[in-house]
Structure formats: C-alpha cells, structure tokens
Amino acid sequence: MRIEVLKSKIHRVTVTQADLDYIGSVTIDEDLMDAANLIENEKVDVFNYNNGERLSTYVIKGERGSGVICLNGPASLKIQVDHQIIIVSYASMDFEEAKKFRPSVVFPDSKSNKLR
After folding, report:
1. Residue 114 in this model has a pLDDT that exceeds 90
2. CATH code of the region 2-106
C-alpha cells in the first residue's frame, strides 16, 4: 500500500509580494527551498494564517537570500502581502517506508523569512 505523507514544510513565513498579472505559482527564496527540500515546479499547498484560505500551486525559484515569498496569479487574491503562510508538499511512498521517513521542516524568522 502507498500513502501520502508530509515531505517538506516551510512554517510561517511572511508574504513579501503578490503579483496578480503573473501566470500563477508561488516564488520562494532558493535558500528556503533548499532547506525544505523543495524543487522548482514541485506542487505545494499553501495555508494562510490570516484568513484560513488554502490553495495548491507550484514552486518558482526566487532569488537566493532575498527572503522572497510571492503569490502569483489568482493566488494573490487569496493571500496578500504581509500575510503569514505555511507551505507544504507531500510524497507518495510505501507504508513501511513512510513509517521511517522524516520530512524536511524549516522554521524561518517570520519577519525576514531568513533561516535561523
């Protein structure tokens, strides 16, 4: 049996930009992507602390060290600048493998979005 488990989590970062006219996605500082074991174009779910909105999108690589978290396209209508969010991704794996798997979870500084 295969199950879905948490693979990566960036816990409580601040949205620094929102761009309605972009085609879609979430732009994430490459340092945060590396720390959370996320890759460009990976599907992620985004949870908004400010209004409870939840959405699925994909990752675009942002400038390393910039602290950028930008919601693009229609997502920018649900999640706006200065909102606090959680970004997660999942992996499908064998049930026994999942019991031993440990996700990559990062808790960046929520004001600067930099790694602590």
Report:
1. yes
2. 2.40.40.20
